[in-house]
Amino acid sequence: MPLPVDKIEQLAPDQASLNAGIKLANPKSWPALGIDATKSLIWGECQGSGSSPYRICVSVEDHGYKCTCPSRKFPCKHTIGLMLMHAHGKAGFETQPPPPWVSDWASRRKPGARAGKPAPADAPPPSLKAALAQDQEDKEDVGSDEKTEARLAAQRERMKTLREQSVRAGLDELDRWIGDQLDRGLAAFPAQAQSQCRLAAQRLVDGKATSLATRLDALPSELFTLAEAQRPDFLIETFGGLHLLAEAYRRQERLPPALREDVRRLVGWTIDRQTLLDMADALRVSGTWTVVANHVEVQPDKLRRIETWLMRVGEAPALPAVLIDFVPVAAPAGVTLMAGETFEAELVFFPSATPLRAIIGSRGATRAQTIWPAGADALAAALASYDVLLARQPWLGSWPLAIAAARIARAADGALWLMAGGDGVPVDPRQSQEALVLCDLDIRDIIGLWDGRLFTLMTAATPLGRWLRQ
Known about the structure:
By secondary structure, the protein is α+β, with helices and mostly antiparallel strands. It is built from 12 helices and 16 strands.
């Protein structure tokens, strides 16, 4: 039995939420929709502003619900949109067994839980009729005033020009800062790394070069991860790379289109989800994908960065991808795709000379079993493939590699090394404790991130089962 429309009106916390729910009641915004065999549970995944969709489930019987979005309104606009699609039959809810995240919610909840908060006593009750009227009015307003649209377009162009000027001024400041550090001498830099990098990062934030600011904020922790003897070379490479990036930005018109997009992204320009989906030349790859690792870290700008690392399975080579979401530290840190989860999907990759970051364009069924990626390379071949990518994109940073027949060995000084045959690379010292369990095990395959200096372990297939990064 469909959800009653009048009940949805009663559940809505306010008119604004109901209006927003109307706009989301469109199957194009939902890559996955499902209903169980008893018709008592519906669920869906709604694409938000991040790469991972929000997950919403609703009990048809007692109107309980849950959504992974950070909204403080209950129910949120995603929940209302899902309810309205079910109520109006606007989308085909595929009958299937509930996925684990729905079954887990249904088993732990109490009937009638989270049935919404009543509207304030002095506020009129939310009205679906009013929401539909507002939605129609919004549609009629779009494009009706060509002068207004032209004025807004001109304003956007002015803002873009001003930001370009601000970014270039920030890059000039960065060059002067790098020169100051070299004049003082690299030996003196570690003692002042935290304060100096924070100062330079703040100037870049003022210059609207936010991604570059985040890169500088991370420099001290990367520096102190290395042995003292390695730090001067690291600083020379890092400062040289930053200067090269600034020069590339100033001359971006001369770069190939894909590399130009890399340069702008590394400085701070972004492409929103809808723009990427609308790009006719965006790289789209369909297949079966498995989650090899999740990583969450809090950035200095008070945003939580959520990385979900994927690899395509069933085809060679094992194509990698990463989904990146940013949420405020105060918001719940929901990881929507768990390590080991395998699913069908089309990924849309951001423009790049070395495509890696992507979003889920459309998603299909979830596989019941975990599938390990095939096509791991010998260590020497994997390192050579990294060098090829680095030649295409000089600021490549970390890249996922799948290594076959490897083992983790402990050196006399206590450092861990990834060994395969006669080759070896050092493991990130920050993993020295959690990776000890892997020492001397015969590992079938291991997947991790290589940045040219250190290997960060993500997951491994061992005789004892699957090991995952903490």
